[in-house]
Amino acid sequence: MDLFTAEPELLPIPIEDGELYFMQQLPLPVDNAEVMQRLLDETAWKAETIFLFGREVAQPRLSAWYGAARYTYSGRTFEPLPFTPLQLEIKRAVEAASGRRFNSLLLNYYRNEQDSMGFHSDDEPELGPQPAIASVSFGDTRTFILKHKKQAKTVKLDLTDGSFLLMAGMLQHCWRHGINKERKPRGARINLTFRLI
Ligand SMILES: O=C(O)CCC(=O)C(=O)O
Ligand SMILES: [Fe+2]
Fold first, then answer.
1. pLDDT of residue 97
2. What parts of the chain have a pLDDT lower than 50?
3. N or C: which end of the chain has fewer CB within 10 A?
4. Distance of CA 192 to CAs 6, 49, 154, 165, Å?
5. Closest Cα to atom 9 of ligand 1
6. What is the pLDDT of residues 20-32, one digit of tens each?
């Protein structure tokens, strides 16, 4: 490979007790704005509910499951829809960039700065002991926050339009992650997490 045709690379982000890799722009056959618009239009978005202190409340974001395998998340089982052609293109791109395989996809749509995701680990037993999770973002930037489970350590990453973050190794075991609400106005953001069940 020469200097002028260098492939974009998935680069390690130094972190203890886990593995993180980042790529500023996942190489895709369509531009980010078109991917964003098609994901907004083609996804079967749902406002899932959770139980909070015995009351049923809507999650502060919309979401949808796609892929081959039934999945349990926050104590509930979801029946996935079949992958769309665009999702398969993105899956091919993350598999090529990471050298890993995925068969399942959770999409989250953060409509504005009020939408968020609580701190959690993607450590369901069906993902195996050291799951690789491929996270691709489109639209407005939001801050992805990691908090160590045993130490007072926090890592913050800005997940920008078209970026690709790979979580692997002991990361889900040792850290929680989430997306906080923000005070500053934010536009729409879609995040895709590919998993292997
Ligand atoms: O929106 C994000 O960047 C995080 C999504 C996430 O943690 C998940 O889908 O499990
Ligand atoms: Fe997660």
1. 97
2. 1
3. N
4. 26, 19, 23, 10
5. 193
6. 999 999 999 999 9
Measured from the CA of 122, which atom of ligand 1 is nearest?
A: 10
Complex-level ipTM: 0.99
In angstroms, the CA 123 to CA 160 distance is: 25
Evaluate the CA torsion angle 23, 30, 84, 65 in order and state its sign.
Answer: positive
> Nearest-CA neighbor of 134 among 169, 95, 82?
95
pTM of the predicted structure, to 2 decimals: 0.94
- The whole-number pLDDT of residue 66 equals 97
Task: Name the token pair of 53.
Answer: 């202190």
* Residue 13: both structure tokens together: 């982000």
d(CA 111, CA 58): 14
How far is residue 131's CA from residue 122's CA, in Å, rounded to a whole number? 8
CA of 186 to the centre of ligand 1 (A): 17
Q: At the topology level of CATH, where does 12-195 sit?
A: Jelly Rolls (2.60.120)
Among 79, 76, 89, CA closest to 38: 89
